[in-house]
Amino acid sequence: MNAASSPIIDRRTVIDWLGIVPFMIFALMFLIVPTLYLVVGAFFTPDGHLTFENIAGLFTPTILSAYWISIKVSLASSLGGALIGFFLAWAVVLGGLPSWIRSSLLTFSGVASNFAGVPLAFAFIATLGRTGLVTVFLREWFGFNLYSTGFNLLSFFGLTITYMFFQIPLMVLILTPALDGLKKEWREASEILGASTWQYWRMVALPILWPSLLGTSLLLFANAFGAIATAYALTGSSLNIVPILLYAQIRGDVLHNPNLGYALALGMIVITGLSNILYIWLRMRAERWQK
Amino acid sequence: MKPAKILAWVAIAVGIIYFFVPLLGTFEFSLRMRRGEYSFDAYESVFSDAAFRATFGYSMLMALFTIIFGMLLVVPTAYWVRLRLPQMRPVVEFLTLMPLVIPAIVVVFGYLRLYNSSSYIPFTGSIMGTNILLVMSYITLALPYMYRSVDTAMRTIDVRTLTEAAEILGAKWPTIMFRCIFPNVMSGVLSGAFITFAIVMGEFTMAALLNRPAFGPYLQLVGANKAYEPSALAVIAFAITWLSMGLIQLVTRFSKLAPSRA
C-alpha cells in the first residue's frame, strides 16, 4: 500500500500510534516540559533576554562550595557504599557462607535501599546524635566522648555515613547478579595455568567486573546527589549542599534571581545526567559477560 | 577455615553492625521517653496526635490514587508497546527511566513554574488541582519501578496469542485489557503497587514544595520540634517499608508457584 494509492495514512497505523498517546502526553506534561522549562529558563533573564549571566552566576563562591560539598558527599558515600557493598556481595556469592545468609542479605537490602528520606535521618540522630545510643554507650562504658573528637553528625562525614545506609544495599542488589555471572571455569582455568588468587582477581575477575562496579558507583553517585529529604531532616539548612540550596531558592528566592535558580537546577541535571549516561554505557559493556 | 571464608564472615559482621546498630539505636531511643525506664509513651504520643492520623491518611489516599492511575497508564502502555509498537520500546523505556536521572526537586521546581496560578494550566491554583499535581508527581517518581515490574510480568505471558484468542472469542478491547491482560500481569501490578506505596508514604520533597499535608513533611516537622517521637516514627516508617517489601516477595513467590494460566 503506497502513499499514491491511499492518500490517507493507513488506519491501523494511526490506531497503533494512538495507543501510546496517553503515555506520551503524561511524559511531556509531567517530566519533559517542566524540565525543559528550567533548562531553557537558565539561559534567559527574568524579562526574557538571552543571557549566560545565570550560568556564570553559578561560579560564585557560595554556589560553587555547595556543588563541591554535594559532589564530595555523593562521591564519598558512593565509593564507600560500593566498597562495602562489593565485599558483602562477594561474601554471600563466593565466600562459601550458608545460603540463608544470602537470601536474608538480599531481602534486607531490598528494604534498606528503600528506607531513605526523613526517617533515615531520625534513625541516625537516635544512634550517633549527641544523646544517641552509640554516643552514650561510648561515653558511659569507655569514657570516650565521640563529639570531643570533632565528629558531628550534621556534617560532611555524618551525612556520608547516613547516605551509605541506602547506598550499600543498592550496590549489593546490583552487584550480586554480576558476581553470579563469574563462571567457575574461568577460575579453574586460571588455577590450572598456575595463577594465584590475587592474580585471578587482578587479571580475570576485576577486568570483567569493573564496568559493573564503576557503573553502579556512578548510579549511587547520582542517587546521592539528588537526595534532599535525609539531608534536610538531618541538618536543617545548616549544611550547604545543592539540593538544600535549591529547596531554599524555590521556597524563598534566597539567590534573589529566579533564573539563577533555573541554572542551579540545570547544573544538577547535567551532573546526574552525565553520571547516568556513563552508567548506561558501562552497563552495556558489563552485560557482554553476563550472557 | 580458609582465609576467604574468614574474610566473608568479617564482611557480614561489619554489615550487620552497620545496619543493625542504627535500627537498634532508633528503637531504643523511641522507648526512652519516660525518665528512668523503657516505655511505649512515644508511640502513644504519636498515635494520639491528630496530625499524625490526618497526614498518614492523606498519604495513604494519595498512594492509592497513584497506584490506580499509574497502573491505568503503565499497563496499557506496556501492553501496547509489546503488541503493536515494538519499535517504540527503547523510547518508552528511556522515558520511564528519566525520573531516576532528573532529581525530584528539579521536577517539582518545573511544576511550580509551569503550573502556577497565573499559567495556562493552573494546577496549583486550587487545592484539588494541587492534589492532582501531587498524584501526577508521585506517578512520575514511581514510573521506573511500576513500568519495570509490569513489563517483567508481561514478558512471561504471550501477549499476542492472548489478544488474538480473546479477539476470536469476540472480546472488545476493554474486556481484553481488564479481564485478560490485567489478571495475567497481576503479580507485576502488585509488586509495582507495593513499592509505589513505600515510596509515596515517605516522600518529602514533592509534598513539601507543593504545600500538601502529607506524611513526609509531617515527619520533618516532628523531627524539628520533638525529641522521642521522631524515633518512634522512624520505627513505624521502617515497618511500612519492610511490610511493602515482604508483600512483594510474597507476591513473586506466589506467582511462581501458581500454575500459569493462559
Structure description:
The complex is a heterodimer of chains A (291) and B (262). Chain A is built from 13 helices and no strands. By secondary structure, chain A is mainly α. Chain A has a single domain, classed as Orthogonal Bundle (MetI-like fold), CATH 1.10.3720. Chain B is an all-alpha fold and 262 residues long. Chain B has a single domain, classed as MetI-like fold. The longest helix of chain B has 34 residues. Chain B is globular. The termini of chain B are far apart. Classes of the chains: A mainly alpha (291), B mainly alpha (262). The interface between A and B is large, with 79 and 78 residues. Chain A: Belongs to the binding-protein-dependent transport system permease family. CysTW subfamily. Chain A: This is ABC transporter permease subunit. Chain A: InterPro entries: MetI-like, MetI-like_sf.
